[in-house]
Each structure stands twice: as structure tokens, then as C-alpha cells.
Amino acid sequence: MESMASKDQNTQESATVARSEELVDRFLDAIWMERGLSQNTLGAYRADLMTLGRGLAENDKTIEQADKADLLAFIAHRVEGGAKPRSTARQLSSFRRFFRYIMREGLRDNDPTADIEMPRIGRSLPKTLSEDEVDALLSAPNTDEPLGHRDRAMLELLYATGLRVSELINLKQSQINFNQGVLRIVGKGDRERLIPLGEESQRWLRDFIDGPRMEILLERQTDYLFPTRRGDRMTRQAFWHIIKRYAEKAGVRKKLSPHSLRHAFATHLLNRGADLRVVQLLLGHSDLSTTQIYTHVARERLKDLHGDHHPRG
Fold first, then answer.
1. CB under 8 Å to 190, separation ≥6 — which residues?
2. How far apart are CA 270 and CA 125, in angstroms?
3. 139: number of Cβ within 10 Å
4. Is 1.20.120.10 the CATH classification of the domain at 4-104?
5. What is the pLDDT of residues 179-195, one digit of tens each?
């Protein structure tokens, strides 16, 4: 038999859902009067808002009490279930209009959607590289030559960490902590993040620093980890030419971008069952809605994967 506590909980949850439903209906009436929206649009708004409302009721919250964390958790759950960026953008738009309405009604004084970035729609990722293609690309440089060794270390590091190209070319030796096996990055908006380094990328970095780097620099000095033959910091354009050259040598026919290895890093982690929030932190995205662009190419989850989830551990 159902316990009294369980009955009370169900009653409380029903009351919470009913309160959310009442607010959603008031909102829909208001925007229908204002804009004369179609029944289909109103139905989509209602479905989005009530799915959120029912989820919040499990935590004894009504919809007007939702905070940013609640909304991000809701978006993450939908994305992990296969929601597309266009669908997520529509939901965010519904939430945004709803919370602006209840602020006008004096039911709260802040908008939890204000800092949530809209997913980029229509900006499709370059077709992601398979793990075999990544291996071919990483193996393309001639590591017997100092510059080839440098290029291999850069490619290994990119794939192991998902760095932005701008972060890679600006990297300094002081940002690597071999004792802890981490990389310290200050990314967009001065947000600092620590990224774990796999054994493979650490080995290439150590070998490069201990020999080929000094051969490239000769007597010159620079703080930048990956110098050019002139002893300068590498430009984005120069690195882009390097990637294109090695892709051609490796027989990779897909259209690449300077961020192709960053995309591969994120996609392969998601394929292997990594949590979306972990990938968000590693990539340095301020919002899950930005990270979700990777999920449409990350459908195949590998079963019974043993060991680390890192693509290059």
C-alpha cells in the first residue's frame, strides 16, 4: 500500500504542477492576445514550458522559481536525448518570453535565461574526423626533423586537450605542469581551466622540449612553447597551412578547419560516453548550449569501453 508520506508527496507535486500550469496558461493567453500567434506555436510553447514545469515539480519548484542551473540541466538532458540545436533554440525562446512575462507581472525580478547563449543554428561543424583519420593525421609529420617533431607535438596536444588554435599557438612552457599532468589555460573572458594531459601527449611534449625545440631556437630565446624557425610565435594562418599539408599527406579528404581536431576531441569523447558537462568544462564553453553543437555528430556511443574516456590517454 502507498504510504502516507508518498501520498503527501504526490499531492504536493500535483499542486506544484497545477500552479505551473496556471502560470503557463496565463502567459499563453497574454501572448495570444498581443500577437495573434497560431495554435501550433502556442501548443509548442505550452509543451516546452510544461515539460520544464513537470521536471521542476519533482524538486518542489514551480516554474516561476526556476533558476539558470535548472534551465541548463533541462537543456543538457534534452541534448543528451538527441535534441537538435534548432529545437533547443525554440525552447530557449519559449522560456525567454515566459520569464519576461512573469517579470512584467511582478512575480520575479530577474530573468534566468539572460546569460544563456542561444545555440548556433545553421553553422554546421566540419564533418568530424574518425579516430582512424586522426591517427593518420597525427602520424603524418616527419618526426626525425625538429619542425616535424614540433608539428607532431602540437597535433597530439590539440587532439588530447581540445584547445582552441589561438590557445595552442600562445601556449607558454609555464602553463604545463608535468607533475600534476595538467595544462593551465586562460580562455575567453579570462576564464581559467585545467585540462588533464594524457600520457601520449605528455611524452611528445617532453621529447620536444628536451631536444627539437632547442634545435629550432638555436641561441634565440622565447617563452612560446612552439616557436617558428625564426624564433617567433606561430600565427594561426601558419598553423592552418601545417594542418592542410599533413591532411593531404595523410590522405584525409574531408574538408578541414583549424578547429577540426578540437571538434574531433569533443565528438570522440561524447561518442565514448563522456558527460556533456565534462566536455563543456574541457572546451572552456561558458554554456552548455554552445557545447551541444557537437552532439549531432556524436550519436554512436561505444559500449563497454574500458579505461579512460580521454581520446588520447
1. none
2. 15
3. 13
4. no
5. 999 999 887 677 788 88
